[in-house]
Design goal:
By secondary structure, the chain is an alpha+beta fold. The protein has a domain of 134 residues: PAS domain (Beta-Lactamase, 2-Layer Sandwich), CATH 3.30.450. The chain has six helices and five strands, in the order H-E-E-H-H-H-E-E-E-H-H. The two termini are 21 Å apart.
Length: 196
């Protein structure tokens, strides 16, 4: 992907920065996607494709989000049912662009943690983490992640006697939420501060 510019030196600099950013994203051990408000792919990393077993050629700037959902539905990732209905429901849900976190057991036995956070003026970031080994290593008695009290709207990171994973989840969610709300609109040059 090239960033538009009239000046060849600016264009070359932007392209070098974009390539460096992609290399950095590909080194992260979590899958990453950024989709825009039209549900089109803006950015992703190699781990996203690997964790979800998507072919490399599916991911390109502007790829429709529904193509990934349909691909999963057709291969049975969402269980039995009509793939078109499964796709329609998930795409409709994604249009809401609300913060979410869930775990998804893939048919191959991989347990994924999926966290999504809206990014004002940029779209929606989703992180995919393979938590299979962590879950298998945990003692059976601690196999359920929960808070003893529902978090409040005003302080979602506060729980009574939180489990370590609960405390981590809420502190991470709070940190991401504040970072993304502080993000400024992108300028003509590549802006990455919201990713840091």
């Amino acid at each position: 992907m090239e960033l538009p510019s009239e000046d060849p030196a600016v264009r070359a600099d932007n392209n070098r920065r974009l390539q460096a950013l992609q290399v950095a994203l590909d080194l992260i051990d979590q899958g990453f996607t950024l989709i825009d408000s039209d549900l089109r792919l803006v950015a992703w990393n190699a781990e996203f494709l690997r964790l979800l077993d998507f072919p490399d050629d599916m991911a390109y700037v502007g790829a429709p989000f529904d193509s990934f959902i349909r691909y999963n539905a057709l291969r049975g990732e969402y269980g039995p049912g009509d793939p078109e209905e499964q796709t329609t429901l998930r795409v409709a849900s994604a249009k809401g662009m609300i913060v979410h976190e869930m775990e998804r057991l893939r048919p191959n036995g991989t347990l994924l943690s999926v966290r999504g956070v809206p990014v004002p003026q940029h779209g929606f970031i989703t992180l995919y983490s393979d938590i299979t080994e962590q879950r298998q290593a945990r003692p059976k008695s601690r196999n359920k992640m929960h808070c003893s009290k529902q978090p409040s709207v005003h302080a979602p990171w506060r729980c009574n006697a939180p489990t370590p994973s609960c405390a981590w989840h809420w502190s991470t969610t709070r940190r991401l939420h504040s970072r993304f709300h502080a993000a400024k609109p992108a300028s003509a040059s590549l802006r990455t501060e919201f990713l840091l």
